[in-house]
Write a structure and sequence with these properties.
globular, ten-stranded mixed sheet, alpha/beta, binds 1,4-dihydronicotinamide adenine dinucleotide, 338 residues
Length: 338
């Protein structure tokens, strides 16, 4: 079986880390992926195209699956985030971010973390509806709909059920935003009624921040709104060793795009210092999503083996290896894995 998959290399460290991930994936599936390389972000604007060009969207609509590097969003220029545009265009409504303690990551502040964040990915304060009311006063709308809240909650509960997870934490700030977060919370409770065998707790966002730092091992599946999930994703990455090791996926009913939590890291771009593990683990999630479970497991075992050995770690993990060194170690470990 061969698979066409859309590849957006990304900006900054994107080409370095996605390049490594593609090599590892090709090794794990014996070259059975036909990558459709399409420009996006600065690679597109540099050629006079829009940041999410029609050819990228058309490819994703055709292949239904994408692997994506991080895309730079210039600050305060009015340039709309390509990530937000893509998630809304393809209705990739559930953002999945598994956060797991990895062996050998000495810089991790905690061990025994194995939680999954499920973030609503299409609305909330990231709806992109912002305007100037009068000079000096701007307004950003937080849009929360019953439809989007119900479907992300359903996705999270189904994920928990099918993955053998036991508990769901629904995060909100309905004390301060009783209508918007209240609706999100009510929808999650409505869905929860269909899953009496799963433990459900609700938690205020600020309390979640404290509890995650105090005892992250107590969390299993955590479902949150869009902005909240964005912030908490980086926080959780910090619990287990940083942005270099945490994968992610944007999933809708028809399409899915896999990418790391991290951004384009302009501070280290082009230096060969970027950790390719986060994108490589995102690619493993992608392989599992398309049914290539064995190949996904080979990659995950390879990551564990390389990290446990500790000889080929990038600077973010306290080592001196380059992106290419770590990629070569992963390739050898995939070859060695059954
Ligand atoms: P960032 O995630 O790019 O970097 C934060 C820090 O983590 C930096 O010190 C960076 O060197 C480090 N880091 C990130 N990934 C790493 C890796 N794989 N290996 C080693 N170190 C790594 O976040 P920042 O600086 O806030 O954003 C930079 C750009 O990325 C912005 O334009 C932002 O909009 C964009 N971005 C894009 C995302 C996406 O495409 N999904 C997600 C987050 C940010």
């Amino acid at each position: 079986m061969r698979y066409p998959i859309t590849l957006m290399e990304g900006d900054g460290i994107g080409p370095e880390v996605t390049g490594a991930a593609v090599r590892v994936v090709d090794c794990a599936v014996d070259g059975r992926i036909d990558w459709e390389r399409v420009p996006a972000g600065l690679a597109a604007t540099g050629r006079g195209l829009p940041p999410f060009p029609p050819e990228a969207e058309a490819s994703l609509r055709r292949t239904r699956i994408g692997l994506k590097g991080p895309l730079t969003t210039p600050v305060g220029t009015g340039f709309r985030s390509v990530n937000v545009t893509m998630r809304q265009a393809l209705d990739l409504y559930a953002c999945l971010r598994p956060v797991r303690s990895l062996p050998g990551v000495k810089k991790a502040r905690y061990q025994g973390v194995d939680l999954v964040l499920v973030r609503e990915n299409t609305e909330g304060l990231y709806s992109g509806v912002e305007h100037e009311v009068v000079p000096g006063v701007v307004e950003a709308l937080k849009i929360v709909t019953r439809r989007a809240s119900l479907r992300v909650a359903r996705w999270a509960f189904e994920y928990a059920r099918t993955q053998g997870r036991k508990k769901i934490t629904v995060v909100h700030k309905a004390t301060v935003m009783p209508l918007s977060d209240g609706l999100f919370l009510d929808c999650a409770r409505e869905v929860a009624a269909d899953y009496p065998y799963l433990e459900v707790e609700t938690m205020l966002l600020d309390n979640l921040a404290m509890e995650l730092v105090r005892d992250p091992g107590r969390f299993d599946v955590v479902v949150l709104g869009n902005l909240d999930g964005d912030l908490v994703s980086d926080l959780c990455a910090g619990l287990v060793g940083g942005l270099g090791v945490v994968p992610g996926a944007n999933i809708g009913d028809g399409h899915a795009v896999f990418e790391a939590v991290h951004g384009s890291a302009p501070d280290i771009a082009g230096q060969g210092r970027a950790n390719p593990i986060a994108v490589t683990l995102s690619a493993a999630l992608m392989l599992r999503h398309i049914g290539e479970r064995r190949a996904a497991a080979r990659i995950e075992h390879a990551v564990d083996a390389v990290l446990s050995a500790g000889a080929t770690l990038t600077p973010d993990l306290g080592g001196r290896a380059s992106t290419t060194d770590l990629c070569e170690a992963l390739l050898a470990a995939v070859e060695a894995s059954p």
